[in-house]
Design goal:
The chain is an alpha+beta fold. It contains nine helices and 17 strands.
């Protein structure tokens, strides 16, 4: 059986590691204050990010080429899948694991002590997520689930200014994806802010945008609220998932990366090769530059980004250790930016290096 695997935290990252450790025949203990808590967020991923072992039944909807809008429409040449959240959670079975409903208070790479005084030793995976902090940029979103129109497009990002905001206000975009054959999620999203836009601001913008597009709301629609840090994850010391640096600072995505990396962690190896650490540092620099941009220039930035060739987009959005592709994407993107945005990016990078 080998050394027991002890997983702290049963969000998607922790549950994926526990599930794959059980599949590998390992003894597994999971520790979470609420191990039976039902997941409620909407999760999605690019098809080419997902591991082969994932049950295909967890997919609620699939889109071949979603759209992105900045100054104009772009079709992203990648398949995109939206998870059925309940099916994803239930597919990551924990049969055979020891489940401890408690809070981990002291965690090292080899031992865990809980608030109840229990101590366990083994291969520890700390997947408890990231705590909010005023020092960390956050992503926020407010969404509603409505009946799906037959020709409603899937929008990965839509930066058009029909949400009632002034061009000089902190920006937000529309994320519109199918949840099933019959329903659609429309979500107004603040990609990253310190502080991020408040849910009430996003609600008003969403309602304004949908009204402008002829989508009527009754006020009884199911609501989704999102708030989580996109900064603060640190690779190493047994941390995994968002806490371990797998959250992408340009999108907020981490679930697909955690699913893909679970087997590596179970084997006792690291996803954080020198190349992967360099890629993560470049992406953090990209986030700092994005946070420093004047609000009206953010759509201009994404116009340049979605104008990149599809392989370079993929390298930046998904290539965990694709250092060459990430550098190429950033180099081509920088060259495509207007001179004033280039200056803002350089200034943000220099300021960050001084801190």
């Amino acid at each position: 059986m080998g050394v027991e695997v002890i997983v702290c935290g049963l969000g998607p990252a922790g549950r994926a590691v526990a599930h794959r450790a059980l599949a590998a025949g390992r003894d597994v203990t999971v520790i979470d204050p609420h191990p039976d808590r039902v997941w409620t967020p909407t999760y999605a991923a690019w098809v080419d990010e997902l591991p082969g072992w994932l049950d295909s039944g967890v997919v609620a909807a699939a889109v071949d080429r979603p759209s992105a809008w900045a100054a104009r429409e772009h079709r992203i040449d990648r398949g995109y899948q939206v998870f059925d959240t309940a099916s994803l959670q239930s597919s990551l079975t924990l049969h055979g694991a020891t489940v401890i409903a408690d809070r981990a208070v002291e965690v090292t790479t080899r031992s865990v002590r809980t608030a109840g005084g229990l101590t366990r030793t083994g291969q520890v995976v700390d997947a408890r997520g990231l705590a909010r902090s005023p020092r960390r940029a956050e992503q926020t979103a407010y969404g509603v689930v409505v009946a799906r129109a037959e020709l409603e497009p899937t929008l990965f990002m839509d930066w058009r200014l029909d949400n009632g905001a002034d061009p000089d206000d902190p920006p937000s975009f529309l994320y519109a994806i199918p949840l099933s054959a019959d329903t659609m999620l429309f979500e107004e999203t603040c990609l990253a802010g310190r502080p991020a836009l408040a849910p009430e601001v996003l609600r008003r913008r969403l309602e304004h945008r949908l009204a402008a597009r002829g989508i009527a709301l009754t006020g009884t629609e199911p609501v989704e609220r999102v708030r989580f840090p996109v900064q603060g994850g640190r690779p190493g010391h047994g941390r995994f998932g968002a806490a371990g640096g797998l959250i992408h600072p340009a999108t907020g995505y981490s679930v697909a990366a955690a699913l893909a990396a679970a087997d590596t962690v179970v084997a006792g190896d690291t996803v954080w090769t020198p190349r992967a650490r360099a890629v993560a540092a470049l992406r953090r620099a990209g986030l700092r530059a994005l946070l420093a941009l004047p609000p009206r220039e953010v759509p201009v930035f994404f116009e340049a980004f979605f104008g990149l060739p599809a392989p370079l987009q993929r390298s930046y959005l998904s290539g965990l250790d694709d250092l060459r592709g990430t550098l190429a994407a950033m180099r081509v993107l920088f060259a495509a930016l207007p001179p004033n945005l280039r200056r803002a990016v350089v200034t943000a990078s220099v300021d960050a290096a001084r801190r």
